[in-house]
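Quarterly update from the structural biology core.
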Amino acid sequence: MAYVKLYRSELKHNFEFLDSLFKKNGVKWGITTKLLCGNRAFLEEVINLGIGEVHDSRISNLRRIKEINSNTMTIYIKPPPKDIIPDVVKYADVSLNTELSTLYELSEEAERQNKTHKVIIMIEMGDLREGVMREDLINFYEKVFKLPGISVIGLGTNLNCMHGVMPDGDKLIQLALYKQIIELRFKKDIPLVSGGTTVTIPLLMRDQLPDGINHFRIGEALFFGKDLFTDGVIEGMSDQVMELYTQVIEISEKPVVPSGELGVNPQGKKIEVSQDDFGKTSYRAIIDIGVLDIQPDYLIPVNENIRILDASSDMLILDVGTNPEGYKVGDEIRFKLKYMGALGLMSSDYIEKRVAD
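Predicted structure, tokenized:
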């Protein structure tokens, strides 16, 4: 049976790298755990690192985090759907918001629960996902500051999450300036400018992060050591926190080119063959996952001699060449994972999750 393994030592290494980096630069940060899809064992590993702040986009996951450690500060990291507002106030200490009507309901619910709910207002800075338009910002904050049961603790933005717009000095300087403008206009203190995610880490490491950006929301860098500017690994970090282990269920030397009339397969593809491949053979290993679990493009074989050919719903086909490693049925083949692939695996009940030292 295929399983995802989380390596405790690699996770700790990446956490300590990031924690040291942020402390050295006077930046507060929290871990975004939406990748873990509420898996209790993996969440416990994250919370045991000593982080005091955890972010997630599913209220059920935040509820589980509070069950593990009620003192952990929880942040709901997308504009809340209105039908879960009671749970957002109950299980999220903070939420990210962009809609006045939602904030009105959060205010009413916070009063019902005799709580003060903290909010960070997200600003549209060009990536065209969530965010208040900049020309509406002053009017927006003016209304929010009047709401009972609501405490505005920051402003923030998301970049690179939708259209790939990268953070730069100009955009982040603008974000920090909005904080100053709002504070001066309304005589309010806004402690957080949440302008940092994994994509912003290289700017921080190159001393190019503008003053005033003092809060980061980090997921991908912690679990994959990812440098989103270079598509590589941040120097000093590990890309082996999580790996997929699969089992060989068939291995045989077969022709490289299929035989018979070729039509469209169940994924809507029509296979093209090269004339150069006729008459050639190679060893093909079938492993116990398929597109139901993960798209092949999100897998990186640890053995560089393995080539991913394609997948059906429940099986994935590998070309292992002349099979120099001597793979046989029952052997395990390991893969590194890309973020979106790991997300699919973590959400699947068919894939076991394990923790190892």
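The radius of gyration is 24 Å.
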